[in-house]
């Protein structure tokens, strides 16, 4: 379940989702290169993914719960496409970069679509309520 707005449970959501996405992306990097990531790679990926996950968690904390869920759905779809790009033939050298960009872009699109759905739901609910 997604916590309600301003719940302290959002901190747990942040930590868990960040840990999951950091682990999954490091796994994808390992599958792509066949080598375990270096400490520098782990540090860089952890910081960037903490920010990537932190924005949707902040939106969810302030009430855009569908925005958070949309971002997670976008990241899942982007992750699958990134793995496909990593598994395909490497001809020009930009497939890896395009896969990572797709992963991040679909997360942002999911956040935007989910937040828009939250805004529409808010105004429709306000319109239906008396007073």
Structure commentary:
This protein has 131 residues and is mainly alpha-helical. 80% of the residues lie in helices and 0% in strands. The protein is built from four helices and no strands. Helix 3 (65-87) runs antiparallel to helix 4. The model has no long low-confidence stretch (mean pLDDT 93).
Strand coverage percent: under 5%
Number of strands: 0
Q: Determine the fraction of residues in helical runs and give it as a percent range.
A: over 70%
The residue-averaged pLDDT reads 93
Basic shape? elongated
Radius of gyration: 17 Å
H-E string: HHHH
* Structural class based on helices, strands and sheet pairing: mainly alpha
N-end to C-end Cα span:
31 Å
Largest sheet: none
- Runs in which pLDDT lies below 50 for 5 or more consecutive residues are none
Number of helices, counting only DSSP H or I runs of 4 residues or more: 4
């Amino acid at each position: 379940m997604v916590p309600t707005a301003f719940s302290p449970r959002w901190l747990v959501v942040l930590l868990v989702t960040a840990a999951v996405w950091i682990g999954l992306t490091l796994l994808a990097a390992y599958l792509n290169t066949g080598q375990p990531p270096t400490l520098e790679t782990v540090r860089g990926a952890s910081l960037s993914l903490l920010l990537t996950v932190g924005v949707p968690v902040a939106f969810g904390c302030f009430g855009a719960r569908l925005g958070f869920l949309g971002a997670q759905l976008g990241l899942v779809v982007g992750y699958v496409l990134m793995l496909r790009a990593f598994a395909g033939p490497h001809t020009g050298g930009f497939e890896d970069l395009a896969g990572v960009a797709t992963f991040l872009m679909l997360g942002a699109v999911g956040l935007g679509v989910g937040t828009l759905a939250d805004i529409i739901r808010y105004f429709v609910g306000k319109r239906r309520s008396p007073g």
